[in-house]
Structure formats: structure tokens, C-alpha cells
Amino acid sequence: MSALPPGAGLDPAVARRATRLWLVVLAVIGALLVIRAIVGTEVGTGDAARTVHGFGMVFVEPSGQGFAEVPAAAWADAVAQDPAQQRITLSWPRTVGVWAAALLTLAVFSFLWRDNPFYKLAESIVVGVSAGYVMSVAAWDTLVPKLLGALAPGFTKAHLMPALDVTATDWWALVPLVLGMLLLCRLAQRTSWLGVFPLAFVVGTFSGWKFVQYVESDLLAQVATMFDPLWVPGDTLAATIGGTAGAVLILVGVLSVLAYFFFSLEHRGPLGGAAKVGIWYLMITFGASFGFTVMGRIALLAARCEFLFDRWLWLIDPAGNH
Amino acid sequence: MSRSMAVLLASLAGITMVLSKFIAPLGDAEVKVADWFNVLAAIAFVLGGANLLKMNLLAISARGPGWGYSAVTLCAFLVTLGAGILKVGVPPAAAFPAVPFSGEKDVNGSALWWLYEYAMSPITGTLFAMLAFYVASAAFRAFRAKNAAAMFLLATAFVVLLGRTYAGVLATSWIPHDNPWVSWLRLENLSAVIMSVFTNAGTRAMIIGIAIGVAATSLKIMLGLDRSYLGGAR
Amino acid sequence: MTPAADVATPFFVEGRGAIAIALLVVSAAIIGGILWARAGGRVKVRRMAGLDAVDEAVGRATEMGRPILYVPGIMDMDNIMTVAGVTILGRVARTVAEYDAELEVPTSRSIVMASAREAVQSAYLAAGRPDGYNPDRIYYVSDEQFAYVAATSGMMARRRPAACFYFGCFYAESLILAENGNAIGAIQIAGTAETAQLPFFVAACDYTLIGEEFFAASAYLSGEPDQLGTLLGQDVAKAVAWIAILGASVAGTVVAAFLGAGPVADGLAALRQAMGGGG
Amino acid sequence: MSRDPRLPSLADRLDRIDRRWIFLAMFLAVAVPILWVGVTGRTFPESPTPAVQGAFDAVESLPPGSKVAISMDFDPASAGELQPMATAIVRHCAMRGHSICAMTLWPAGGPIIDATLKDVLGARPEYRYGENFVSLGFQAGNEGVMKQVNADLSAAFPTDARRTPLADLPMMKGVRNIADFDLLVSVSAGYPGAKEWVQFTVSATLTSGKPLRFVAGSTGVQTPQLIPYYPTQMVGILGAIKGAAEYEYLVNDAVRRADPAASIPARFQEAQRRMAPQLFGHVLMIALILLGNAVFVARRARGASA
Hints:
heterotetramer, B: mainly alpha, C: 10 helices
């Protein structure tokens, strides 16, 4: 394997080799999918059991105003009872969706190998879709209820959000509207100086807010936890010694880590010693935090693998989806 | 001139917020301000969206390398925005059949739901999952016992990793669990001790330091000493 | 929203004495530090290797003709870490302007983009290079965390910045960015107060500013007396906290081990409750 | 050095190993056990830690019919870790006959609540919406909402997710503020989440005469930040998928003790199933750390610059 970092490859010979390599990878993936389809999957039980060669399929049945997903086994059962039934059907949008999701998943993983057109495609899609998504959410969840709903409650309730719980106009909503308009003045060169006022307002208010919040719930409350006695009697001598040692180690740790954060004194002499112990505590904290996080990250990878193996390839079926 | 006014505005706004925590009639200022900020951030999307359009349109018109990806981004953005704002494929809410826009914007089956479920969610989820690979690579490279501090980092990560699996439980299962003098050495207990003593102390002290750092930063903003977020470099 | 005022509500919120005192102490310490520095008092600040390396990193990027990446976190301006990140950006941008290097700032929020542009533009102005400022290199990507990461990682793989700075509020993206920066051989300097992400920056970056150090960075980089005075003030506040912690611990121990239940124990419990330290 | 410096030693080569080999190893360590467990259906037993036992006991010890509020503050990106927790806790509450009130402060949390409630309560006809369980849905405002629910729940959530006013829901009779619940659970992936619930809601009730019992479920990365609040401000913590697996085990164990013949549906063993890739992933991480240090020591012994 070459040690080339991802993205390097402007040399045409390298680029040609990379293209060939990608063709091979794609051919292998394609062949595996064909084999998967030929092998097929048995869905349904008893008399309804049948082998299907498709996978990554989603079946739906009507439910309320829309459709609900049902396991492939339910479809097999329904077809076994009545081959002409139209209640449980294959959902093309959802099936295409599962395949799109699976291919996009592979495209993102391909970045681990190196930057490549598939990753770039996935990247372009996610940037566009997510920006559009967050803006839609902001429009419907914030602008409509909190701005339009506050300033024009009658119109909003009649046409957009009948369930909105407002009756009278709330003129306070003009404040963010004016601030927002000032911010948008940045779009034009001549008026862009007005854009600093909303910035000043936001940063100012939140600095006041966070000032009190952090001093209250982090500084004061954490100092207050240190009222815990150092002497911790337990049921047994071992418990007493253990509890007391723990309490003393906590105190030593808090004081020495704080000592590390002193800026106006060089880390020499007793302060230097304390700061060094402080660093050790910090490193233990980071090590533990790292260890805990690894767990979560592996779980996420497992979830993606399960998606590929379960919902797309139908290799496993732990939750009885097909 | 406008900058000085802006700094004054920041100070007044900050001081008002501080006072609101102590003066009862100002008590609901926080909720209001949080609402205002959300609305402002929503309006600011016009700035971000305009920038996104501009950057991608420039890239497309320049036909530089990779302009096709810009076109994809642009299409994905406009399609999603259109689907979301116009609630494409969203039936009216059951309670209000006469109001066409009354349904939830991302109800199961709608266009926005499809884009979220099958495009955005798998990509972002996979990017998140790639961390599993990166933690492995970082662990191999960075966790080396170069000095005492690194040794502590390494040893703790090791114990926690081992203690959180069945393997760790097996590895120290020979230590009697009913002898209080040694039972804490069992890996699953040892990682709990690390968490409740060392991590507890380290986190507490960091939280205290951070609170003081936030206080200093906020005060500097309210006093007008830090103004570079407004372009007021000195 | 407002309940009917059938009982006269007091003008001041009750039970906020302890927090008021704490705010006054912290404010007095920091303002005192500023005044001390203004009056010509000497403020010595210990070295912070991570910040001393900023110049070196920018210089190296200039030599190699590669851009410099600056990420001000992924949160909005209502987060103090983002404000600190933008402030540090102002200082870093000044160095970048002096070296005439190329700066790249992808942001995850529209308002942060606006603020970062202000900070960078005025830094270029202050450095005497207003022409070097290019607002198009400070751009909005997406509010979605991982969409932002996808675009920034891709950009890193293609433009190969020689120096990466991460100053602000970070979540899971910290390690993705830092590992990708590592793979392209960039010098990386990070700073955050998001304690959960510090291990990853420590593992994958060359230098990491931990917690309060991150908030001290802008003052340190500016080198102005006012700013250094705030560091002194922070230290005074920390010293008070240090003594309070020691005092609390001793008091708690004496009460628990020797005095037992009684008026002193009640007083201590009341004090603890007023400070919000639970039961 | 006695060897030809142009010939890199094994340690040198390992030191410069292409990280993609590590990626491949990690992929295999996770993917193979998933397939193995998926095919055989076997899981590992768990031994619950005190923090998880505390959470379990908090639900177990409440008398049937108690009111439990659950805030599902996460999005699909963290569902891998947190969904099994949310499912297990809701299921445990349902087994004990508690009333469940779900809410979320994350915009993407609404569908998660619906799916969880449907998944667990769908097969329990005795659970009727509005009487034994409600979903308040999503409310924007982060800490602002948490402060509001301290004083007045209906100010923060005027209606439930189905736009029914709270006053019209039988289950919400007698619930004026959050402290009227017997237990608050937050399953959270970050901000706002368990930490904020402690700071703004639970802490506020500690002085009000009726302390609110609080259980947190959290991602691995957030768990260390919650440790300082346990056990004073929170009675239990479920940390990461391991915490979820332990809780699931306790719940499933309770089911089996009540009825030894009961079969546990696969979807209620999700976290336990996930522990197999965890085990191999962790072992790989440990091996990588050991290998990294072996390489480091070997190269240092040879005098190579690190």
C-alpha cells in the first residue's frame, strides 16, 4: 500500500492508476451484489415461506393518512393468503431510499482510503441537503411561530399553523425582526456597517447571561461540592480508608489542577510541583474520557454496519424486519 | 463611531442580562432573549444561504476543477429548501383538513422526510461512525509512554477500555470481589474508581477554571475591551 | 405568561445573595487586574507553548505556500467559546496578514461568518494590508455538524493547509478534523473549553490549550497591558476559589468528624445550599 | 548501529504503517462480530455497575402508576448508543405500570419519541394515549424550557405533540410543574441535555422541599462530565452502550424472573447485541496501544529519534 495521503494524485499516471483501481473496486462490489441477489433470502414462515432475490426492499401498508413500513414476512404472509392483494406493496421511494442511503454510506467510507469522486459527491449532496434542511426547519419551527405568529397571529393561524397558541400580537417580536434586517444590511456594501449592531446585541446579551450562569452553576456550585468531608467513615475499616483516601485524592486533584491554570506565575517551586500533579490528573481525566468515548464511537460504527448488513443486504435480521 | 455605539449596545445588553437574574420584573428576559436569538439566527440564514449560492454559482460559472460538485450542492440545496418550505408531499394535519400547510414539515412520507432519512441521515451518521477509525489511528500514534504525563493518559485509557468489556471482567475475575481491601482492583471497579476520584477531580477543577475564564471573557466584552468580533481591532 | 399579581412580588429575586457576592468578587478581581496593569503594574505571564507556536505555524505555511485553516468551532455567537474563538481569530489573522499568507475560515453558522469577516477585515486593516483581505475565504458551509465536517475534511484533503487552528466550541468533529489534519502533515493548534473533546485534541494536535487556557489565549496573543491585567485578575479569582475550596473541605471535615449535628453543621448546610451545591 | 540504516527495522516499518491498515482492522473487528451475532443470536451476560443499578432501582422502587417524565434529547446521529436506553427505560416503566410523559428539547427528537413509544407500548393495549402516556413533543428554547417547566409545565408545553391542551389530558391532571413527576429521566447526546437538566431543573428542586429524582442516560463522550453530579443530583447514570446493555440486561432479567419461559424479542436486546462488536473493537484498541508502545520502546532502544 502506498503511503500517499488522500487527495494527492495530480500526476496523470497516478490518476490513471487510481481510476483503474476504482473500476476494479466497483466491479468487485457489483459482482458481490449479483451473487447476493442470486443466493436470495427466505422470507416468511411455514407455508408462506418464499425465497426472494431482491434485497434492500421496503414494504408498506396504508396507515392513517400515509403508509407504515411492514416486514417482508408480513408481505409474504399476505401474498400467500391472497396472491392478488394490494394492501401490502413494495414502496419504490423507500426502496430507492435504502439503496441511496447504502451507496452514500459506502461513498463516505471510501474517504478512509483517500479523497475520491464518490466522497466528493456525497459531500456535495450532504452540504446542500443539510443547509436546505436546517433552513426549512428554521422557517417552520422558528420564523412562522415566533415571528409571523407573534406579529400576525390571525393570518398565521388561518393559513399556516392552526394549532398555534396565540391570540394577541406580541410587539416584542419586532426586536429580532429589526435586528435581523440590520444584519441583512451586510449584503450591500453601503449599509454593511449597520450589521455590527445585531452582532453587538447578541454577543452582549449572551455575555451577560453566561457570565452569571457560569459563575453560578459552575464556579459557585462546584466550590460548594467541596464541603464534602475528607473523613468518610464506612462499615468496615477498608471502606473507611477507601472512602477517606478517595476524598483526599479529590481535594488534592482539584487544588493541583487549579494550580496548573495559574497564568501570572511561572511553574517553578511548590507551584511547579502542584502544577505537575495537576497535569497528571488532567491526563488521567483525558485518558478515561477517551476510553469512554471509544465505546460510543464503536457503537456508531456498529450501527452503520448493521444498517448495511440488515436493511440493505438482508444478511442478518436481528430485529425481524424482513 | 458606529463601532463605539455598538460596543455601548453590547455593554448595556450584557448588564441588563446580569441584572435580570436579580431583579424580579426582568425575570423573563432570558426566555425572550433566547427566542429573539433563534429568530435572528433564522433570519441570518439568508446571509448563509446567499453566501452558499454565491460561492457555488461562482464555481460553476468559472468552470474550474470540480465545478460539477458545486452544481450538485446547489441542486441539493434548492431542492431541499423548496421541498421543506413548500411542504411538498405533506398532507394537512388530521385536525385541520382545510388548511393545506397545517401538516408537520417532515411527516413520514414527505419529500423533506425522504431527503433527511435517505440522504442526510446516512451521510452524517457515517461521518460520525468514521470516528471509530480515527480513534484507533490516534490511539496507535499518540498513546505512547514518552513521559510521566503521557504514561498516565495511556494507563487510564487502557484500564477504562479493558474495564468496560467482558474481557476486562474476565482478566481480573481472580481478585476476590468480597474482600474490600483488594476488590477495587478488579478492572470493572478500578475504572469506576478512576471516574469517581480522578476524573471527578480533574473535571471539577477544569469546570471551575473555565467558569473563571468565561467570566473574564464576558467582562471584557461588557467593558468593551474585546471587540474584535465587531471588527474593532486595536 | 405573567401570573396575576395577587401577591406583591418583591423587586429583587430572593435567595441570590451568594451568587451576587461571587459575581462581585470575580468582577472586582478582574477589573482590579486591569486597573493594576493600567497603572503600570508589572504583569508577568508564564509561557504557553501552544500560543508561541502560532507564529511558527503561520511562517511555515507561508514558506510552503499553503493556506492556513482556522475553525472557530461549530456553535453560534450565543456561545462564549465561539466569541473567544472569533477574538483569537482576530489576533491570528493579524499575524497571517503580516506574513501575507492565505487564510481559510469555513464557518458553521451564518452569524459567525459575519462576525469572523469583521474580525479578519479589521486585522488586515490594522496590519496595513487591507488589500490582502478576501471575504470569500470566510464562508458559510452548513449548520449541520457533520455536513460541515464533510466539507471541511474534503477541503483539507484538497487544499492541504500547512497549519490548522481549532479555537472554539467543538463536539465529535474535533477528532475527525485533527486526524485529517494529521494525515496531511499540518501543524495543529487547538483550544477549547469543551472538556469532553480535549482528549482528542491532546492526542492528535501538536499543541492544545486546555479549558481556561483557551480563554486566556486572546489576552496572551495581544500582549496588551489591559488584556494581561485580566489574566492577573483571573488568577486572583482562582486564588480565592482555591482558598475557598480548602476552607470548605476543612470546615466540612471538622463538622463531620468532630462536631456532628448542631448549629454549625446547619449553618454549613445552609451555606452550601445557598451556593447551589446540593445536599 | 550495527545494521544498515537503509534497511528499516520491523519497528520502523510499523511506526510508519499506513493508517489504512488500522482502519481495515477496525472495520473487521466490528463487522465480523455483528455478522456472527446476527447469525447465531447469542449475547454476553452483563454485570451491572452501581450507577446503572441505581437507575434501575429508581424506576423499580416507584409504586405502580407513578408519573415518569422522559426527555429524549438526541437525534438519529446518536441513536446507535441512546435508542436502546430510551427503549429499555420506557419498557421498564411500562412493565412497572408507570405513566410516561415524553418530551424533547432537540428538534429531531419528535420522531424518536413517536417511534420509541410505538415500539414499546404498541403491544400493550392497557396503555392508552392521554391516560397512561403522552408525548409533549419538541419545544425550542433549550435551558429556557427547563426553567419554565420548573414553574409551569403548560407554559413551556402549552399542548402535547398532537396539539391537545395539557389540561385536556387525563394523565396530566395534578401535574403543574416538573417536580410533580416522581422521576425525571434525560437520555441525551449533548447540549441541551442531562447536564443542563441538572443545572437548571434538578438543582432548583433540591431547595424547594420536594427534590426531583433524576436519572441520566448519556453517550460515552458525555458521561465523564456527568460523574460529578452522581449520586447527589442524579440517582443513576447509564453511560454509553455498556450502560444501555446493563440496563437492558436488568430489565430482561426481571422479565425472565417473572416468567422463565418468556422469550425476549430481539429488538429489546439491541444494546446487548452491540456489546460483541464493542468487545472486539476494544480489544483491537488495546492491542493497538500495546503495539504502539512496543514500537516506541523498540525504536528508542535502538536510538532512533522519536
